Automatic annotation (TrEMBL), chains A, B:
Keywords per UniProt: Cytoplasm, Methyltransferase, rRNA processing, S-adenosyl-L-methionine, Transferase
Catalytic activity, as annotated: uridine(1498) in 16S rRNA + S-adenosyl-L-methionine = N(3)-methyluridine(1498) in 16S rRNA + S-adenosyl-L-homocysteine + H(+)
InterPro entries: Alpha/beta_knot_MTases, PUA-like_sf, RsmE, RsmE_MTase_dom, RsmE_PUA-like, tRNA_m1G_MTases_N
Main EC class the enzyme belongs to: transferase
UniProt subcellular location: Cytoplasm
The keyword Phosphoprotein belongs to this UniProt entry's keyword annotation: no
UniProt xrefs under Gene3D superfamilies: 3.40.1280.10, Hypothetical PUA domain-like, domain 1
GO-annotated cellular components: cytoplasm
UniProt record, GO biological process: rRNA base methylation
Organism phylogeny: Bacteria, Bacillati, Bacillota, Bacilli, Bacillales
Any one Pfam family match given in the protein's UniProt record, by short name: PUA_4
Residue spans crossing the bilayer: none
Identification of the protein by name: Ribosomal RNA small subunit methyltransferase E
Amino acid sequence: MQRYFVSEENLLSDKIVIKGEDVHHIVKVMRMNEGDKIICNVLDGRAAVCQIQSVSDASVVTTVLTWETNYTQLPINVTIAQGLPKGDKLELVLQKGTELGAHEFLPFQAQRSIVKWDSKKMKKKMERYRKIVKEASEQSHRNNVPSILSVASFTELLTYSSKFNHKIVAFEEEARSPHYRKLSEAINQMKPNESILACVGPEGGFSDEEIQSLKKHGFHTVRLGPRILRTETAPLYLLACISYHFEELR
Amino acid sequence: MQRYFVSEENLLSDKIVIKGEDVHHIVKVMRMNEGDKIICNVLDGRAAVCQIQSVSDASVVTTVLTWETNYTQLPINVTIAQGLPKGDKLELVLQKGTELGAHEFLPFQAQRSIVKWDSKKMKKKMERYRKIVKEASEQSHRNNVPSILSVASFTELLTYSSKFNHKIVAFEEEARSPHYRKLSEAINQMKPNESILACVGPEGGFSDEEIQSLKKHGFHTVRLGPRILRTETAPLYLLACISYHFEELR
């Protein structure tokens, strides 16, 4: 069944009114009519099976039939801080990171990031990225849509990190050292509803100064298995392991 | 340090001779010379730090300095059977599946696969796919290169499955059923050095007949977390969880 995200103001007791782009999708793309059913996700996480009452160019009015009880949300809030990578790798992380349950994305300008973003470029990309994340949320049957923060400087990332319960950074050198910190040790300390900031470097990795700064700000270095992962694979490995721990092991 | 895969016939007691494409990479791309060090992976899994003795257009002769003792191989053999997906998704699975430790890839023609392959097309694609997997093995510091089998029919997949210790199929319906089989239950039964065949459907998923056939042939259906994953994300989630279980939890 098709799934749409609607903001709370469109929820009126037992009716949900859909406006904007999704109206076009429902009417012109899916060619739905009165009587057809869809799932509406209200942005605070609740979802309901709804039946279309009426359709116009501007809106689709639906009645709530039943509220869903499926819980598809990762029970811990993971923010992926991604050192800006090249090409369309960030889009891949946003799409698949959303499928895998990420709560929030924080792209940041790492020392070794090859791409540099100006604010004009950022605005256009952000629209595209929000669309990617919304579609991935719908397709993966999430109850909520992860947020994407504006590209931060490394200093802003460090400042932002102070509000998190847990902070980890994927550091490949950890994989080569015989006394590496196991990822499972880090994950075993996390509890449901806590917040995790997981930091991944760009293609060139982190500089020594960046690693020292992160450690000074309470980040724990972890390896992600014994193999070296690409910048865009690392967050997916991390999210999958956190999902496995919280959603498949318990 | 740059890593190259060489076949066993290039290993001569304490010398390793590199021929073919890698010579161009060493000499023209990396601009290496006598005295420079590289890592040579012999195809049976051993790797050595080597020093370049001499360089020519046709070969690079190196001396073995030390054999590596790092073990980067996933201690259980996972074959990813991927229902042929659209576009370049298979390439993504091959590349990242290799980083994540897969032993072997078996693309197969699923009932709902939109793409159909003829043998001429297959030959050209296979060359490209082998290159992708070799490069991903080098970049991720694997000691061996996963194999890619020719595209199989569904019947051939079922026949091939008889040689595996464990057979699982990612089935999203399992995610919606209240009595779902946990992935951890399946993984907990696996032991090091055993073989796993993990089957993933194409974009349209599996047909009911395919699921019935797979179950009849001893496949267990599993869900991969509570969210629905895309065809190309599913094998990555699976490999990450298996890696987490065998390489990070123990």
